[in-house]
Amino acid sequence: MTEDIRICFIGDSFVQGIGDPGYRGWVGRVLEATGKDVTAFNLGIRRNTSEDVLRRCWQEVAPRTVPGADNRLVVSFGSNDMVEEDGAVRVAPARCLDNLATLLDGSRRRSVAPLVVGPPPVVGAGAGHLARTTELADGMAALCRERHVPFVPTTRHLAADPVWAREALSGDGAHPAAGGYRRLADLVLADTRWQRWLTQPS
User: Fold this and answer.
1) Mind listing the pLDDT tens digit for each residue in 38-66?
2) The pLDDT of residue 200
3) HSE on the CB side for 2, CA within 13 Å?
């Protein structure tokens, strides 16, 4: 009998794939390359912060999981948290990390295997945003290590990637087109933590 693997991808507009003319984003490209028969759900929403994702997570994930199935959750947020509005970031870094910890703890209680993909950089938001997002990503990585949750870093890699930067700046300053999302997908697919997480039963 075929194993029932269900993967929910939850997060922001990068998860949703905004900017990709083919509407595949990095999530679609990763799924194409898995080589496994999975049931996948893209639950990305534009402008969502960690607060937004935490608030809606289990309302949306629970109906898409099945008792006895191999239920999994890929989480990616943080870029919107670090955007400044009216002189302050939308969500403080410590609060963002608390939200991630709460989400991961909830995932464990529900027997849903989590994996975290680090926040991509918003090229058009400037050096300050990149510094904040990079520091946040480091905090996320440390938190995931403490909880033995795989974390795939993206922030530094994509900030130095000319394809990501060129496509983002030729668009809305944040979201790349197909080439940039391919670069992000390649980071995920090449990471041994993703490979182990996908191939080992949850």
Assistant:
1) 999 999 999 999 999 999 999 999 999 99
2) 87
3) 7
pLDDT at 201: 76
Determine contact, residues 163/180, Cβ cutoff 8 Å.
yes
Model confidence band, residue 2 (pLDDT cutoffs 50, 70, 90): low
Alpha-carbon separation of residue 6 from 38, 54, 70, 114 (angstroms):
6, 19, 6, 12
Residue 28 makes CB contacts below 8 A (sequence gap 6+) with 17, 22, 42
- In this structure, the number of other CB atoms found within 10 A of the CB of residue 122 comes to 21
Amino acid at 64: R
Our CA angle for 104, 110, 116, nearest 5°, is: 30
Residue 14 is encoded by which pair of tokens?
Answer: 């990068």
- Give the mean pLDDT of 150-159: 98
User: Mean pLDDT, the chain, as a whole number?
Assistant: 96
Residue ranges and CATH numbers for the domains of the chain are: 5-199 (3.40.50.1110)
Per the structure block, which two tokens stand in for 113?
Answer: 């295997």
13-29 exposure pattern, b = at least 16 Cβ within 10 A, e = fewer: bbbbbbbbeeebbbbbb
User: What string of DSSP letters covers 96-152?
Assistant: HHHHHHHHHHHHHHTT-EEEEEPPPP-GGGHHHHHHHHHHHHHHHHHHHHHTT--EE
Side chain identity at residue 41, one-letter code: F
Determine contact, residues 43/9, Cβ cutoff 8 Å. Answer: yes
Q: Which residue type, as a one-letter code, is found at position 142?
A: A
